[in-house]
Specification:
The chain is an alpha/beta fold. About 20% of the residues lie in helices and about 20% in strands. Strands 3-2-1-4-5 form a 5-stranded parallel beta sheet, with helices on both faces.
Length: about 240
C-alpha cells in the first residue's frame, strides 16, 4: 500500500492525476502499469489541507511540488495573493515546469543555477506579513523553513513530509508479543517498525509518519500502537 498526492486541477472531478517518481520497488510497479490495467484505490483523504484566505507562500522541493500544484490552482481561482518558490537539483529533475515557469509569481530555483539553499530564510525572502506558508519536500528543506519562520511575519506554516521524521532523543524500549511470548528490543535510534520488519517481514505499513494507521497493531488490554512512530514499553496482542 502506497500513498500519492493528487496533483491535478481541483475543478476536474472525473479523474485523478498523480505523479510517481521511480525510486523503488513500489514506484517501479506503478511505472509498469499499462492503459486498461485495473487497480484498487482508497480515498482520497488529506493530512495537508489548504485553508485560509491568503496571502499564500508556497515552497516546494522536487517531487514535493505534487500536493502544492492544486493549492496554487485554488489560490489562482480565488484571486488570492500568492507566490511559489520551487526548488530542485536541476531543471531536468523538476516535474511540471511547463505548467509553472510562465507565471511571474513562480520562482524556479534549481540548485544547478543558484546553489543549494543556505537556509530556510532564503526561501522565505520577500514573504509578506500575515502570510500562510505551505511547504513540501526534503526533510532538510522543511526543517530550514520551520527554523527560520520566526524571522518573518508569517501567520502559520503547514507542511507535508515524503519521508519519516528523524528520531530525536529516542530511548530504547521493549515490545512483548503476548501470544508468542517473543520480546523485541527497540534501540534508541530505530523505530518499532524497523524491528518488526526484521522479525516479521510481512508486517504492513505505508506512510511511516503515524497518520495512515496501516501499521497499527492491537495492544493488550485495548487500544493500539502505531509501530512506525509510537515508542514505549508495551505488551501487544500478537
Amino acid at each position: 500500500m502506497r500513498q500519492y498526492s493528487l496533483c491535478g486541477d481541483p475543478s476536474e472531478k472525473d479523474h485523478y492525476r498523480i505523479a510517481v517518481r521511480k525510486i523503488g520497488v513500489a514506484s517501479a510497479e506503478v511505472h509498469a502499469l499499462t492503459p486498461g490495467t485495473r487497480v484498487t484505490v482508497r480515498g482520497p483523504r488529506t493530512a495537508f489541507p489548504f485553508v485560509g484566505e491568503g496571502p499564500f507562500w508556497f515552497v516546494a522541493g522536487g517531487i514535493g511540488i505534487t500536493p502544492i500544484l492544486p493549492m496554487v490552482r485554488r489560490a489562482k481561482a480565488r484571486g488570492a495573493d500568492w507566490r511559489l518558490v520551487y526548488t530542485g537539483r536541476s531543471r531536468e529533475s523538476m516535474p511540471f515546469l511547463a505548467e509553472l515557469e510562465s507565471d511571474d509569481r513562480v520562482w524556479i530555483r534549481p540548485d544547478t543555477e543558484y546553489g543549494i539553499p543556505a537556509s530556510g530564510a532564503e526561501l522565505l525572502d520577500g514573504l509578506p506579513d500575515g502570510a500562510s506558508v505551505y511547504c513540501c519536500g526534503p526533510v532538510a528543506m522543511i526543517t530550514g523553513v520551520r527554523v527560520d519562520l520566526g524571522l518573518t511575519g508569517a501567520k502559520a506554516v503547514h507542511f507535508e513530509r515524503f519521508a519519516p521524521p528523524p528520531i530525536v532523543d529516542g530511548e530504547p524500549f521493549q515490545l512483548t508479543l503476548r501470544r508468542s511470548g517473543q520480546v523485541l528490543d527497540v534501540p534508541a535510534g530505530r523505530t518499532a517498525l524497523d524491528v518488526f520488519l526484521e522479525a516479521r517481514p510481512g508486517t504492513p505499513y505505508s506512510c511511516r509518519q503515524g497518520f495512515c494507521g496501516t501499521c497499527a497493531v492491537p495492544a493488550a488490554g485495548g487500544g493500539s500502537m502505531r509501530i512506525c512512530v509510537d515508542r514505549g514499553t508495551t505488551v501487544l496482542d500478537l
